Amino acid sequence: MPKTPEIRGWCPGAFRPMASNDGLLIRAKTIGSRISAAQLATVAAISEDLGNGFVDLSQRAQLQLRGLSEATIREALPRLEAAGLLPRNAEAERVTNIVASPLAGLDGHAAFDANAIARKLAGAIEADEALRALPAKFLFAIDDGSPLPLCDIEADIFVGPAHSDCVELRIAGPDDLVILVELTEAIDAALKLARAFVTLRDGAFELRRMRRLVAALGAERVLGMARLASALAARRPKAPPAPFLGARQTGRLFFAGAAAPSGRWRAFELAQLAALAEAIGIGEVRLTPWRAALIPTGNAEAAQGIVDAARALCLIVSHEDPRLSVVACPGAPECPQAQGDTRGALARLAPLAQKLAGLDGVGLHISGCAKGCAHPKSAPVTLVANGGRFDLVEQGCANDAPQRTGLDISAIEKTLIARAKEHPCPTH
Description:
alpha+beta; Sulfite Reductase Hemoprotein, domain 1; six-stranded mixed sheet; five-stranded antiparallel sheet; 11 helices
């Protein structure tokens, strides 16, 4: 039987590093989706100089530097602070978890500037002493209605556009309930919902996400505590966003989209993207919760030039790249909880995973343990490391009961081939 993994309930930060087998992990804190080219270059340089040269782009659009030590962190923090990537304090770092529309402030079709709302919300959360009790995993999402919606993001509180000058707020759990308020009242309403969560949760670890609280107490209890009235609305679609990799145009905006396999970037790749953003872009990069970076440009030629350079670095610049069909956590030896390697066979299994991919583009999830951190949702096939081999779950999550156990890579490959023949994916 595989070991039961430890549920830590928090993410690494600059003020609270997380220990891993490749050293300490810290995050360069960003609020919203924008990071300047200079800031990204600083992250790359810190990783190269003080870490192990690897940076993970998380599902919360945060850059996570790997392989630091107690000594090198003391050097890293002043550099992050000088770049504007260090939170005010540990409390601010822990509770201001906000993702925003990747193209916020750039797309003329957006209902509002999601990054501006995110910054104001972060400031209000920091100033509210009651909200320091929010769990470290509690997440806000600000969606401005642009062509890259955050519909597939599992946020505790979601803010998005509604009709006229109104915005809607939704809490995780009831997909058909919304709170409608004017844009100027959106932040206040989000804070009321967060305070209601803190009060009703009362510190219970098992209720550390809004969905769990709603399941335990009901949505009306949360809304009543927040003194907010709800209305019935259409369910939010769970479809993935419009294509964003490669050279793209939306309205008058041009951008280049690039990703790294399973969100693992090498420092020199980020440095190169930062240099391109400065030289032929508009001096900034947008981080996405799909672990991709978008580089806005002034014209199509510049966007294509960045894509060509990213392709030369072996980055992912097309939604047809089979590597997108596999999601894998760091695994062993990096993660101390992992029960085996998770990335050694990515190239071998990716073409098969692509044949199994569902609507979200994922066909295979490889997890080092039953927590399934890299992909908490269900996947057509999930492999869970177990003593150097893998247990296999079909149409489930890493913590579900496996249908087969103790498989090596050859057996997995044969299983995926058979699975693809028996159950071809709906998108191919």
